[in-house]
Amino acid sequence: MLECSKFWKSVIPLLIGVGVGIAAGYSVWHTGPSDIARLINNSLVPIEESGTSYSFVHPLLGYRLPEATIFGEYVSLKDSFQKIADTAKSDGNATRVSVYFRDLDVGRWVGIDQDATYHPASLLKVPTMIAFYKEAEENPTLFSQSVTYDSSVMPTDPYTAESKLAAGRSYSIDSLIRSMITDSDNGATFTLLNLINPDFLDAVYISLGVKSPNNDSANYQISARTYGLFFRVLYNTTYLSSSYSERALKLLSEATFTNGLVAGLPKGAIVAHKYGYHIFSGNGGVVTGIELSDCGIVYYPAHPYLLCVMIGGYNEPTASKVIADISRAAYVAVEERYATSSPAQ
What we know:
The longest helix is centred in the last third of the chain and has 25 residues, at 316-340. Helix content is 39%, strand content 19%. The chain has a domain at 122-220: Beta-lactamase, CATH 3.40.710. It contains 10 helices and 11 strands.
């Protein structure tokens, strides 16, 4: 994999010299045999596809690597994330903030509270799309099938956004997936959930080693780092075929939600992302708090990166601004890194 090969390019200097200073941007290491062995043993943890019936292959989905700060990289970006989070909490704009950033081509990542869990809400529409695309690999006629939209599929929850679909009208599965992802349409989502075999959807989570909602999405929680795996396997085409991974990310790049990540980027920047919005309510339906998440891949020229931000707060506008600030900080850090260093670093 690309991220693996580039990772080893940065580790090889450690293997051929003891006490050799790494190039600018890296920490100076003074290593002995035990240090090198520990570095190798702890650096690459494979993420392998689970729950398959294969006898002769064991598909590799990716690698878990240590945080980039141990290599002296993206230290200032992590500090920026923490400063933005601390300011947001002290100003009352957030109760908690989690961030997971990953430079996709070299596998370097940093985060703050990246393993804390949140209610994903509409973020779960991405694995639902992946499940349909996985099925389509075996059944190419799937997307030509149509279904009549029945508005009764919508829950009675007053906080569930209304669907733009017309009751009684027929829609292809392909168009329902588009509505679910680009507009986050709940009518399309619940229609699709009624069509798919729950076991097939669970298989997406099981294969990636991620806990499945098991029809309990209201109480399900996931972390920023774990959720990022869905985007990583799409980018690296390690779960779906290249054509379906491309199709999925292109669709995600057409999302109409322009707050959060998009708001922190230069105009015209390409980002394949999905947001999720969860509401907490008390007696009488009074809103007591919210969780807003926005996760995706920002296609910085030649150096795309993954950014997943999850916020606990009191309202969507202030939470969106915090996400935008974090998104801006990540973009500036990537811009500065690659404006002053070669792509091979």
